[in-house]
Specification:
It is a single chain. Helix 2 packs across helix 3, helix 8 runs antiparallel to helix 12 and helix 8 runs antiparallel to helix 14. This protein is mainly alpha-helical and 321 residues long. The protein has 14 helices and no strands. The longest helix is centred in the first third of the chain and has 30 residues. Helix content is 68%, strand content 0%.
């Protein structure tokens, strides 16, 4: 496979995952706006929106601008730009993807740029976010049902799970860094609501409830989002898929050095199980590992500038179980 094709596949999948994430996070915040005071809503908006990979200008929300924040959330350009970038990558490699994949991407791109629908969504933005989420789900289905498990599939998997793992880690970091007032009565938002919003932003609320019933404990939620083996929204599940995919790529392309996943997730799981040290540092280490894998992936398979692919540190590498 040409490195250009691998690059297009990788970024196409990352942009679709990113568009779905932005739509999901913003919709969670919009749901809060119906029965909350503007100051309360903005407090949580700033936290969740800062967890986006690269928060657009309209997502830079401050507590001093609740009215502007409410109106800016109807701006669909941030999601539309991700879809447009995914479509452009797909357009350049039409012969390497299925017709169904192209139809899904092209269809939602045209819908997001239709003046009549944009005017309608400006009044009823929930319809817009639902359209994006459904399109992302149908695109996933087209990939799962229409592609052979070859090199193209591997780069799509890496794009999806690197984006998802990194974004989940960023949202977790924002939540864990949230300041806790000395006086409990000063809290504007109920703590349980904050953690429910985090689970919804990660698309993991129902998955969590299936595993832990109705018990909403912060330590359980953090452990679930990081270390759960069975949840497709957990970081551990994403790292398992990344590890398997990198091993398959190393076997398919023996001329290039293998990329080994470092020990950041192993260390994070150990910290959670032993309660040894702050979880936020472990989450930041996971983000760093995602960035390192991204750089090594480009250097090894796309730019071909790297001769070796070292592990980030001397700790034990992550091994799937």
């Amino acid at each position: 496979m040409l490195s250009r094709v691998a690059d297009n596949l990788y970024w196409m999948r990352r942009y679709v995952e990113r568009a779905d994430q932005i739509a999901r996070v913003v919709r969670v915040n919009m749901d809060l706006a119906f029965d909350r005071a503007p100051l309360e809503v903005v407090q949580l908006w700033g936290r969740l929106l800062s967890g986006l990979w690269s928060a657009p200008a309209w997502a830079q929300v401050t507590r001093e601008s609740p009215t502007d924040a409410l109106s800016d959330l109807t701006n669909i350009d941030a999601v539309a730009s991700c879809v447009a970038a995914a479509r452009e990558n797909a357009r350049q490699i039409r012969q390497h993807i299925t017709g169904e994949m192209w139809d899904r991407l092209n269809g939602v791109h045209l819908a997001l740029n239709d003046p009549a629908r944009r005017a309608e969504w400006a009044q009823r933005p929930h319809g817009f976010f639902q359209t994006v989420r459904e399109a992302a789900a149908l695109f996933d289905a087209a990939i799962a049902d229409g592609l052979a498990r070859d090199e193209a599939w591997h780069f799509l998997q890496l794009g999806q799970f690197l984006e998802r793992s990194a974004s989940t880690a960023r949202l977790l970091e924002c939540q864990l860094r949230a300041p806790v007032p000395a006086n409990e009565s000063d809290r504007l938002l109920d703590e349980q609501l904050e953690w429910i919003c985090l689970l919804r932003a990660c698309d993991a609320l129902e998955l969590y409830r299936h595993r832990h019933r109705t018990e909403l404990r912060p330590d359980h939620i953090v452990r679930f989002l990081i270390a759960d083996q069975l949840s497709p929204r957990s970081i551990r599940y994403g790292f398992d898929r990344i590890t398997e995919t990198l091993a398959a790529l190393a076997e398919a392309v023996p001329a290039q050095p293998a990329i080994v996943v470092g020990s950041a997730l192993t260390d994070a799981v150990r910290v959670l199980e032993a309660r040894d040290g702050p979880a936020v540092e472990a989450v930041c280490a996971i983000q760093g590992e995602c960035d390192r894998i991204h750089r090594m992936l480009r250097a090894t398979y796309i730019d071909h500038q790297q001769t070796v692919a070292p592990v980030a540190n001397e700790g034990a590498a992550w091994i799937t179980r």
